[in-house]
Design a protein that fits this description.
Elements lengths: L7 H5 L2 H17 L1 H9 L3 H17 L9 H7 L7 H28 L4 H5 L10 H35 L1 H16 L10 H18 L3 H19 L11 H4 L3 H29 L1
Length: about 280
């Protein structure tokens, strides 16, 4: 039994149960530090404080600080290790295309069903923040906070131990399901978004496994969430105004949007496949 497993009742729990609990705590507790800082300190002081927190969080989660008995286990969960130039190239391609894929999927979804703008805006009212630059900074910090904490929790502390015990397929499916369930608690969540959330979790999980790193998932997740916060949720970058095909008919624009989604998804999968071959090599 390793130091990370512990003893007693905790040590007797199945690996998957322990990994899910620790992953959820690592993701959700840390991610909720930012809203508290934003409400208590305001901008831009909250952004600076959150940057310090995220640096400390990454340092600790990747094996820094106490307890020393869990240093190796934390580094393993965080997937620390060197990356080759080829891994950096394909990892960044996968990250950027992943973010674009998710937004393309949302566009296609809201061509199939009406876009509930008010529902998406509810819960993301940043009217207490003054100045467009501060609004954008808040969106970027919100995105980075969610990305760092959720990738550490879901794709690191939850998925990695399950990979070791049950293999990558079970691990990626487990982390994806819990990633989706956590986000279903949000006011903007709907049945139509379930496959997109599951798909996002599966792509991020596959990217973490294939690259043996959380870095690329954090990059892609951050880019994705900047778009979500700035465009779909707070709408400071504009509002989606296209009408569903039930009103416009299946037009050329809809075919183009589906084509863009398919092309981006294909490139993302090809980049992950390339990372998988590099992993094997």
């Amino acid at each position: 039994m390793s130091a990370a497993d512990g003893g007693g009742f905790w040590g007797r729990l199945p690996v998957t149960v322990r990994a899910v609990i620790v992953g959820l705590v690592a993701a959700m507790v840390a991610a909720n530090v930012w809203p508290v800082l934003l409400l208590k300190l305001g901008m831009p002081l909250a952004a600076g404080a959150e940057a310090v927190f995220l640096i400390a969080y990454i340092w600790w989660a990747s094996g820094g600080g106490p307890p020393l008995s869990l240093k190796t286990a934390r580094a393993e969960r965080f997937r620390t290790g060197p990356l080759s130039s080829a891994q950096w190239t394909w990892g960044l391609v996968a990250a950027i295309c992943f973010a674009a894929t998710i937004h393309a999927a949302i566009v296609v979804l809201f061509r199939l069903v009406p876009f509930p703008a008010e529902t998406f805006h509810r819960g993301y009212d940043l009217s207490f923040i003054h100045g467009r630059a501060m609004l954008w900074l808040a969106c970027v910090v919100s995105a980075a906070s969610a990305a760092v904490c959720e990738e550490t929790g879901f794709r690191g502390y939850m998925q990695q131990p399950i990979e070791k015990r049950h293999g990558s397929t079970v691990a990626i499916l487990t982390s994806s399901v819990f990633f989706m369930l956590v986000h279903l608690t949000q006011g903007w969540a709907s049945i139509g978004l379930v496959p997109i959330m599951i798909g996002a979790g599966a792509l991020l999980g596959s990217l973490a496994w294939a690259s043996r790193s959380l870095i690329f998932g954090m990059v892609g997740h951050t880019i994705m969430d900047i778009g979500l916060f700035a465009y779909w949720w707070t709408q400071i970058a504009g509002t989606f105004s296209q009408r569903p095909i039930s009103e416009t008919g299946i037009d050329a624009t809809f075919f183009a949007e589906c084509g863009v989604f398919a092309a981006l998804l294909l490139v993302t999968l090809l980049a992950i496949a390339r990372l998988t071959r590099l992993r094997a090599a």
